[in-house]
Write a structure and sequence with these properties.
Oligomer: single chain
Shape: globular
Order of helices and strands: HHHHHH
Number of helices: 6
Number of strands: 0
């Protein structure tokens, strides 16, 4: 990965986290906010593969864990986003032309369900009283629905931008494939 691409990815991740924690928190529905950071991580995994997406997912998750108004144990979002990046990298098309719209929405739905479930269940294990057990499934369903609803607005330009900067002469040698 080139230095310029790394800086651009860091800027996009930072912008997504700032928008998610400040602007979009005003549009939260029952405490659930659209997860822009997750969508960026999924887009990275779909275009650049696991070699790039996994470390970026970990850093993004730690950023979400530490940026105010974080009120949970650090590491929960990091774990959730790394698992989501791993799953999304497994859905990466072999021909690198990019996934279809249906595949993108399905990947976002699966990864959103996985990341939100891991975050919620890790909170349950660690004794986080933020969401009662009776509401966990409801919160996960709302989070997945919101992420899927914003996918057509966020993912096409993000995937286009990442594909534009992803012409790497080196093949993806990540252990995520086959």
């Amino acid at each position: 990965m080139t230095l310029v691409r790394g800086v651009l990815i860091a800027v996009v991740i930072s912008l997504a986290v700032v928008l998610q924690t400040s602007v979009l928190s005003g549009f939260a529905w029952r405490g659930v906010v659209p997860d822009l950071a997750l969508l960026v991580v999924i887009a990275l995994a779909l275009t650049l593969g696991g070699r790039v997406a996994l470390p970026v997912a970990f850093a993004t998750g730690l950023l979400l864990d530490l940026v105010p108004p974080a009120d949970h144990a650090a590491g929960r979002w990091a774990l959730a986003l790394v698992l989501a990046a791993y799953v999304a990298a497994r859905f990466r098309p072999e021909d690198r032309t990019g996934p279809s719209a249906t595949a993108t929405v399905a990947t976002v739905a699966a990864c959103s369900f996985l990341a939100t479930s891991v975050f919620a269940l890790s909170g349950l294990i660690l004794g986080d009283p933020m969401v009662p057990v009776s509401d966990l499934l409801w919160v996960i369903a709302v989070a997945v629905a919101i992420d899927v609803l914003i996918t057509p607005l966020v993912m096409p330009p993000l995937l286009w931008w990442l594909r534009r900067f992803s012409h790497d002469p080196q093949p993806d040698l990540s252990p995520m494939r086959g």
